[in-house]
């Protein structure tokens, strides 16, 4: 086997793993964005690098975090904000965590109950073809009407306090003029339970990763009102997390793991592999969802509701293209900005440095070489390109982070808290 991962692009012989054969115990949550990790285990990419991935399906992100911290896992499928939160000392059990590899972009969506969406249509004269921002503004009108009638607050589910889902749901709500801390109630619901929670009336909507939005819409329970691409197409999603001391002690294993994941990501991006990928993901050991739904999700083909309203989102998942696996520190800083915006952290230069330390492009480059990394700066302005806009038109310049946060009309006015209310 040969590789071209050196900076000169010349073939290199397969490296000898001086640390010996490795079995890596890896925790994951049953979501399509675990595809790269699952594909690396199922289709031989890890084995080619002398690694065995022992995948362990878990029930919540808090469990995954704790089991990584307590050394029950070597690596883990994690939410992109989790390493940032850990390096900031946030949460009920913060333990240093880094990521050298992102598991791609896309996959999230916001689903509201069918009954709530029908009420929004009547309150705001909302057309079936309304976009994400129109849907958020329509929800604001419904909430205002509910408040006037002294009806109880609506309850929405997110997967974890330090999650892309929490920040994206809040971003969408706030763009419509809704204060997530005052106008609605946000609770934590594990991804596989969201559809059943909606059916039971325990929540009125949720933001979660695929395939659970589609599961709810096809059950006739909800309407998909926004996708991740509507809020910010390049928003970081899931990552591979590991303890920094483990990474330091196992440099060759980390490098081989990144090479294996890179090959798996390239394979997952090819549409002609999606039938095989969907079949693997549908297995009860992994996602345990209908294979036809997973296959359509991979193609970005959505049934928005049970009334045959459909939407196709090109590149709904980007497993590799566009340097989707690169752990860019400016993404970590945007996550940090949202933690400040919503009262989870405070503004300081030391905290900004801690946030960026969670994302390790140096380990990515050491494994794959500079030719396989982007040529622009690791810390760059985000949201300024035509195909990568934030839904409210704002641009994130990490050099102006305090002013960026202060510029939001809707942001937390609550006292700082450490995020210890998670489940």
Automatic annotation (TrEMBL):
Chief location: membrane
InterPro entries: NrtA/CpmA_ABC-bd_dom
Keywords linked to the UniProt accession: ATP-binding, Cell inner membrane, Cell membrane, Membrane, Nucleotide-binding, Transport
GO cellular component: endomembrane system
Sample GO molecular function, one term: ATP binding
Location(s), subcellular: Endomembrane system
Annotated Pfam families: NMT1_2 (PF13379)
Annotated protein name in UniProt: Nitrate ABC transporter, ATP-binding protein
């Amino acid at each position: 086997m040969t590789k071209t991962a050196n900076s000169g692009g010349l073939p290199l012989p397969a490296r000898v793993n001086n640390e010996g054969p490795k079995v890596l115990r890896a925790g994951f949550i049953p979501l399509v964005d675990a595809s790269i990790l699952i594909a690396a285990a199922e289709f031989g990419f890890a084995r080619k690098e002398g690694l065995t991935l022992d995948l362990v399906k878990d029930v919540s992100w808090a469990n995954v975090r704790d089991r990584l911290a307590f050394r029950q896992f070597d690596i883990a499928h994690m939410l992109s904000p989790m390493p940032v939160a850990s390096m900031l000392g946030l949460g009920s059990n913060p333990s240093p965590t880094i990521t050298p590899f992102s598991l791609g972009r896309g996959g999230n969506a916001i689903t509201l109950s069918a009954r709530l969406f029908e009420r929004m249509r009547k309150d705001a004269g909302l057309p079936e073809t309304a976009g994400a921002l129109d849907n958020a503004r329509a929800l604001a009108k419904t909430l205002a009407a509910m408040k006037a009638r002294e009806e109880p607050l609506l309850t929405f589910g997110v997967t974890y306090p330090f999650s892309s889902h929490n920040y994206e749901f809040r971003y969408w709500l706030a763009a419509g003029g809704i204060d997530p801390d005052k106008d609605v109630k946000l609770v934590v619901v594990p991804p596989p339970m969201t559809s059943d929670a909606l059916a039971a009336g325990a929540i009125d909507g949720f933001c979660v990763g695929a395939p659970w939005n589609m599961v709810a819409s096809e059950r006739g329970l909800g309407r998909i009102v926004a996708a991740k691409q509507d809020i910010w197409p390049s928003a970081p999603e899931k990552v591979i997390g590991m303890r920094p001391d483990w990474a330091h002690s196992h440099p060759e294993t980390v490098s081989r793991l990144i090479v294996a994941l890179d090959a798996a990501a390239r394979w997952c991006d090819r549409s002609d592999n999606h039938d095989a990928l969907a079949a693997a993901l549908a297995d009860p050991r992994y996602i345990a969802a209908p294979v036809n739904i997973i296959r359509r999700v991979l193609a970005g083909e959505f049934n928005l509701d049970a009334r045959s309203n459909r939407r196709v989102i090109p590149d709904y998942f980007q497993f590799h293209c566009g340097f989707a696996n690169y752990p860019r520190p400016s993404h970590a800083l945007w996550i940090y900005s949202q933690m400040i915006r919503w009262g989870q952290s405070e503004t300081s230069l030391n905290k900004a440095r801690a946030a960026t330390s969670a994302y390790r492009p140096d380990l990515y480059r050491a494994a794959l070489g500079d030719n396989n990394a982007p040529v622009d700066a690791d810390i760059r302005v985000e949201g300024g390109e035509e195909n990568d806009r934030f839904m409210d038109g704002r641009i994130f310049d990490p050099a102006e982070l305090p002013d960026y946060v202060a510029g939001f009309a809707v942001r937390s006015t609550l006292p700082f808290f450490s995020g210890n209310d998670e489940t």
